[in-house]
């Protein structure tokens, strides 16, 4: 049986994939650039010749790739909400699930942003992530305590 924390981590990761897919589907330059880079590497490796005067396959392949990324956006969001719901069901605290999902999303977004888009984050961003992760560790380290017994009214 998978614990609530694992579901929360997966939900955060899928949220990061969904946001990256949205950025890819709405920003056409990213997909076209990746396609052209792949095409140049394939041409060099296979010694194929492409006439520069003709339209590049990336010009027409760009549209289906954008639709594919849009579909991936909706699919990842659907599965993310499913995992988030399962995390809430399997966890004793909704705060833990929310913080874990948020932290996982931030870290995954940073990694995907660096790998896919070549983004770099400022030191202040990393300080904020470190504080968020520290709060997550404190929250997970605290054992949940049962509420104190209710004291009944005294008859006077």
TrEMBL record:
The chain crosses the membrane at residues 63-84, 123-143. Residues 1-22 form the signal peptide. The keyword Transmembrane helix applies. Keywords: Membrane, Signal, Transmembrane, Transmembrane helix. InterPro entries: EmrE-like (IPR037185), TMEM42 (IPR039632). It comes from the Eukaryota. PANTHER family: TRANSMEMBRANE PROTEIN 42. This is Transmembrane protein 42a. It comes from Esox lucius.
